[in-house]
Design a protein that fits this description.
The protein has nine helices and no strands. It is mainly α.
C-alpha cells in the first residue's frame, strides 16, 4: 500500500529504466533532427571545439536550437573570462596565488555549473524542465489538483495565442501588479518550454 492508501504490488526494475532511457533517446533524437547544423560551423563554436573538445561534443548533443545558441554564447563568455585571467597573470597584474584562487575557486565553480547545465540539456532536460517538475511536485504535495487544471489551461492558452503574445500579456499583467513575480516566472517558464517544442 502506498502513502495514498492505494494497493499495488508493482516492483520497479532495471528493465523499466532501460525502457525509459530508450524513450528519452528516441525523443531527443527526433528533436535533434530539427537542429540547424550551420551553428556548429560558426567561429564561436569552433573556438569551443579548439579549447575544450569534450564540452563542444556535449553542446552538439543538445536537442534544442535556441539552447545550443545560448550555451555557445555562455561558454564563450566563460572562455573570455579564463583568457582575461591568464592575461593578467602573464602581465604580472596578479600573483600566482591570486590566479590559482580565481581560476580554481571562482571560475571553477562557474565552469562546474555551466558543464552540469550542458550535460543535462544534452539529455533533453533544461533548467525550465526541472523547474516545471519541481512545480508539479509542489502542486501534488498541496493536494490542490485544480492547480494542474489551471496549468493545462495556461498551456492551451499559450498554444492558442502563441508564445510571444502570451509573454507580452504576462509582462503587462506583472507591470500592472495583477501577477506576482512567482506566478509571472511560472507562466514565463511554460512559455519558454512551449518554444522548445
Amino acid at each position: 500500500m502506498n502513502e495514498y492508501g492505494e494497493d499495488y504490488d508493482y516492483e520497479f526494475t532495471g528493465e523499466d529504466l532501460d525502457e525509459i532511457d530508450e524513450d528519452i533517446q528516441e525523443d531527443t533524437s527526433e528533436l535533434h533532427e530539427n537542429i540547424d547544423e550551420t551553428v556548429f560551423e560558426e567561429q564561436s563554436f569552433i573556438r569551443i571545439e579548439e579549447k575544450d573538445p569534450e564540452w563542444a561534443e556535449t553542446i552538439r548533443k543538445i536537442p534544442y536550437q535556441q539552447v545550443i545558441e545560448k550555451e555557445i554564447e555562455s561558454v564563450n563568455e566563460f572562455i573570455d573570462k579564463q583568457e582575461a585571467l591568464e592575461e593578467k597573470l602573464i602581465n604580472g597584474e596578479i600573483s600566482q596565488s591570486a590566479y590559482d584562487h580565481e581560476s580554481l575557486i571562482v571560475l571553477g565553480k562557474e565552469r562546474a555549473k555551466l558543464e552540469t547545465r550542458c550535460e543535462l540539456e544534452a539529455e533533453g532536460i533544461t533548467w525550465d524542465h526541472l523547474g516545471d517538475l519541481t512545480e508539479d511536485v509542489d502542486i501534488a504535495s498541496t493536494g490542490n489538483y485544480r492547480l494542474f487544471e489551471n496549468k493545462e489551461r495556461l498551456i492551451e492558452t499559450i498554444d492558442k495565442i502563441g508564445p510571444e503574445a502570451a509573454q507580452e500579456l504576462a509582462n503587462k499583467r506583472l507591470a500592472e501588479n495583477e501577477l506576482s513575480e512567482d506566478l509571472h516566472e511560472s507562466i514565463s517558464r511554460q512559455i519558454r518550454l512551449r518554444k522548445l517544442k
